[in-house]
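Figure 6 in text form: structure in, sequence out.
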């Protein structure tokens, strides 16, 4: 694809068509509970608090930019998923959304399992005491070292992603004298309604083995013949930030029809299916996500219905929500550095972070909300673009939003719903120091991932 050159006019950095933003909320001081973590509230003094602690106090103690995670909310969401799916199903939190040892302990205490997709995530999980049998190991190109470690420590399942990996995992397991529980990840041909980069179940992509052309059936046949493998089921993940259950319905139907085919061909009823993660959250007031109990009910009904029709025993279901658990539980706190009004266009608000702590806007055209949190204001709303301090014009945190027109350097603003895929995708671009993650609960705040320091940077740079 060639890109034509264009003159750098005033709207050079635009990434969305004109007029996609909605009108300002009636009162910019009101925090929409849909996008803010459970204990976030505006206090009588006008500033905002989380877990009972004022953001000004948090900024003073921990600095900015920083991510603040509402532990009460995280635990409540984890519990809601666990309860919704009950004892006949398993919830694997997808660690890629955000993983730290404190989070692993919260998950363990709330009865969730964990999905990891790298040796680093596996090490983090194990070092925080997550029992290996409650860990699922994912990835489209796991190294021999990663596979060996996963099998040695005894992970509950490895999700096989390719024909080569079927043989590789079988061989390593056998050489270790083990039989590894595995699932096969299939691509069911569903195109989830999400951004193209994060839709994963259409066939033209790197993950999984296609159901089409009998490939997945062939993968099952091979796995069943290998002594090092115990094939426990089929896995499907169709994408991320999805609101519409229709994609899951089609995926479940196709996975169940593969189970029926396996039964017919091999006389084996595979006992489990995993329908992956991908459930959407509210980034702005316009988003309407489903509750875990609605999702559990819908998925359970689809699978039961399809299995009855195929005369199969209903398999044990598992799901892998990442964003839906951690996403809404955190916000990023920034200090405003400069305010640059462009007459008739918008006002650029520069903060002390940017694409190094939230790459999602630049990468996926993601939408976010923002609020002034260190005080209230009755000033008129102004259209703003919240940008970072990095050396590119695409360094945008919030594309279009409204903030009070008396916003000034030194004000604290916060971007909600940054719990998922922000710290976990953070970078050191421009040698930025990645911000800390601070857990807040019942009037206490504690660092769970500390801020990087210049010493950290120099330690890696060995001269
Ligand atoms: N299971 C598997 C196999 C996955 O690949 C993923 C996400 C999940 C579960 C969890 O999906 P979730 O419930 O969090 O949507 N960086 C992108 C999202 C990439 C998702 C990758 N896989 C973003 O920031 O939107």
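Output sequence:
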């Amino acid at each position: 694809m060639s890109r034509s050159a264009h003159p750098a006019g005033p709207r050079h950095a635009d990434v969305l068509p004109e007029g996609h933003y909605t009108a300002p909320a009636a009162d910019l001081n009101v925090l929409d509970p849909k996008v803010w973590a459970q204990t976030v509230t505006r206090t009588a003094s006008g500033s905002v608090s989380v877990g009972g602690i004022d953001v000004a106090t948090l900024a003073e103690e921990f600095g900015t930019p920083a991510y603040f995670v509402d532990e009460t909310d995280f635990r409540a969401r984890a519990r809601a998923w666990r309860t919704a799916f009950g004892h006949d199903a398993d919830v694997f939190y997808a660690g890629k959304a955000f993983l730290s040892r404190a989070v692993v302990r919260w998950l363990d205490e709330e009865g969730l399992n964990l999905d990891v997709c790298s040796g680093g995530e596996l090490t983090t999980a194990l070092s925080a005491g997550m029992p290996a049998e409650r860990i699922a190991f994912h990835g489209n190109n796991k190294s021999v070292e990663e596979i060996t470690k996963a099998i040695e420590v005894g992970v509950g399942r490895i999700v096989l992603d390719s024909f080569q990996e079927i043989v590789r995992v079988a061989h390593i397991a056998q050489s270790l004298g083990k039989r590894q529980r595995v699932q096969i990840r299939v691509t069911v041909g569903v195109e989830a309604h999400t951004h193209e980069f994060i839709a994963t179940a259409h066939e033209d992509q790197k993950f999984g083995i296609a159901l089409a052309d009998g490939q997945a059936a062939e993968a099952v046949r091979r796995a069943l013949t290998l002594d090092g493998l115990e094939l426990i089921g089929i896995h499907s993940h169709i994408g991320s930030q999805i609101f519409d259950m229709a994609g899951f319905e089609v995926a479940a139907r196709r996975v169940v029809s593969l189970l029926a085919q396996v039964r017919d061909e091999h006389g084996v009823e595979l006992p489990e299916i995993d329908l992956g993660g991908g459930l959407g959250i509210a980034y702005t007031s316009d988003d309407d996500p489903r509750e875990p109990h609605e999702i559990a009910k819908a998925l359970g009904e689809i699978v039961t219905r399809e299995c009855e029709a195929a005369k199969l025993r209903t398999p044990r279901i598992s799901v892998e929500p990442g964003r839906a658990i951690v996403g809404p539980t955190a916000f990023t706190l920034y200090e405003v550095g400069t305010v640059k009004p462009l007459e008739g266009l918008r006002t650029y608000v520069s903060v002390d972070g940017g694409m190094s702590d939230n790459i999602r806007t630049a990468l996926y055209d993601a939408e976010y909300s923002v609020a002034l949190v260190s005080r209230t204001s009755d000033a008129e709303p102004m259209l703003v673009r919240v940008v970072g301090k990095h050396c590119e014009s695409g360094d945008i945190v919030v594309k279009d939003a409204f903030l009070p027109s008396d916003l000034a350097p030194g004000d604290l603003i916060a971007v909600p719903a940054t719990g998922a895929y922000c710290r976990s995708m953070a970078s050191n671009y421009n040698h930025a120091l990645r911000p800390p993650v601070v857990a807040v609960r019942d009037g206490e705040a504690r660092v769970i991932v500390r801020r990087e320091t210049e010493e950290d940077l120099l330690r890696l740079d060995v001269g």
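Caption detail: The chain has two domains: 2-70+328-460, 138-321.
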